[in-house]
UniProtKB/TrEMBL annotation:
Sorted UniProt keywords: Disulfide bond, Sushi
Secretion signal span: none
Source organism superkingdom: Eukaryota
Sushi domain: residues covered: 2-54
InterPro entries the UniProt entry points to: Sushi/SCR/CCP_sf, Sushi_SCR_CCP_dom
Protein's recorded name: Sushi domain-containing protein
């Protein structure tokens, strides 16, 4: 813990590392980080914590689908 008090909570995220003046976040699986993952303790308190946003569902695109054989391409969008 630091002079700034408790570290901000990041929904769907966790603390990757911390010191008394710095905390770094990472997102849980299936989520990506928006914003600076590292925040600092200043005289006015903790900086703005990042957010963890869900990675959009994988979309299966069927390129060719013959009677028995299909070719599937998986595209991952952020």
């Amino acid at each position: 813990m630091s002079k700034c008090g408790e570290y901000p909570t990041v929904l769907n995220g966790k603390i990757a590392s911390n010191t008394s003046t710095t905390v770094e976040y990472e997102c849980l699986g299936g989520f990506y980080i928006s914003g600076d993952p590292r925040i600092n303790c200043t005289n006015s308190g903790w900086g703005t914590a990042p957010t963890c946003s869900v990675i959009r569902d994988e979309i299966n695109i069927f390129r060719e689908c013959l009677q028995v054989e299909c070719v599937v391409v998986t595209v991952l969008f952020r």
